[in-house]
Amino acid sequence: MIDFARVQKELQECSRDIEASGIRVSPKSDNLGRLIGTIPGPIGTPYEGGTFQIDISLPDGYPFEPPKMQFATKVWHPNISSQSGAICLDILKDQWSPALTLKTALLSVQALLSAPEPDDPQDAVVAQQYLREYQTFIGTARYWTETFAKASSLGVEEKVQKLAEMGFPEALVRSTLEAVGGDENLALEKLCSG
């Protein structure tokens, strides 16, 4: 059984430290077993300036079993599937410890963006490009960040207007879009679930 008291405490810890870390975790709905994490792209990497959404599912054994995480935002990285968003990271598998938290796991995912491990890839095509054509890899990773992980301010206004036209209050639409990093589909899902 998931320790929901611990999950609540972890969510509070993340929201207290959001300004410093840039890391957010919020429930996808009323169910605390399904969460959405948001991490900023690390400075000095091709992911800089991007905001990355990560789907988090807590297994019944959490915190004694690792959370299941995968990128909802498309990302070009050797240790992240460009197709499914699956993440190859030891602490999300056999190196998990109940002493770790959702925040520390997301910090580790953010660190992985800074320090790819192409010799232990999740996506072999990306890993080969990283090893053989590094500049092409950098260009592709930057392009994917620009395309999938950045929301232009004009795009945000269009999304607000579109969702408000569906009958949702504009202030609620803005705060929901902000909470999910500008992902219109996630915002709609959250607005519809109450």
Characterization of the model:
- It is a single chain.
- The chain has 194 residues and is an alpha+beta fold.
- Helix 4 (124-132) crosses helix 5, helix 6 (153-164) packs across helix 7 and helix 7 crosses helix 8 (184-192).
- It contains eight helices and four strands; from the N terminus they run H-H-E-E-E-E-H-H-H-H-H-H.
- Strand 1 and strand 2 form a beta hairpin.
- It is globular and about 50 Å long.
Residue share in helix: 40-55%
Please tally the β strands and state the result. 4
Class based on secondary structure composition and strand pairing: alpha+beta
**Main sheet specs:** 4 strands, antiparallel
User: Taking Cα atoms only, what radius of gyration do you get, to the nearest Å?
Assistant: 17 Å
The residue-averaged pLDDT reads 90
Alpha plus pi helix count: 8
The string of secondary-structure elements, in order, is HHEEEEHHHHHH
Strand order of the largest sheet: 1-2-3-4
Low-confidence blocks of residues: none
- Our measurement of the CA-to-CA distance between the termini, rounded to an integer number of angstroms, reads 25 Å
